[in-house]
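Quarterly update from the structural biology core.
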Amino acid sequence: MIKKILIFSIFLTTLSAHAYEDCIITSDGKLTDIKIQDPSVVNIYPVVTVMNEKNTFIIHPLKEGKTSVCVLKEGSNIIDFEVSVKGDETVVEEVDGLEFLTLDEPETPFELDTPPSVKQKEVSNG
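Predicted structure, tokenized:
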């Protein structure tokens, strides 16, 4: 009986997953040689694509703080940017040549449209 109550309470509990937003870094060129000033704040993972373009990475925050990231683009362009991790968001400095997209956006109130009414056809046995 206690197990049933525990399982039922788990299903009724709602948890918020808005802390520490992950970000995606994309570029039109190959990104290599990533260096993180403070690796205890964020971790960066490469995303393997079908075409093996090596132009996409995921920034995964580990704790609150601020750090600097250095990326080598196309083997010769050094790009530096700041990453700031707060309790409810991850802020990445805008940089030319890189695009950033957050994965875990905070909830905003919205209302779904009501579905259209469905007319049922009468089936006659003929």
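Strands lie at 23-26, 31-36, 42-46, 56-61, 65-73, 77-85, 90-92, 99-102.
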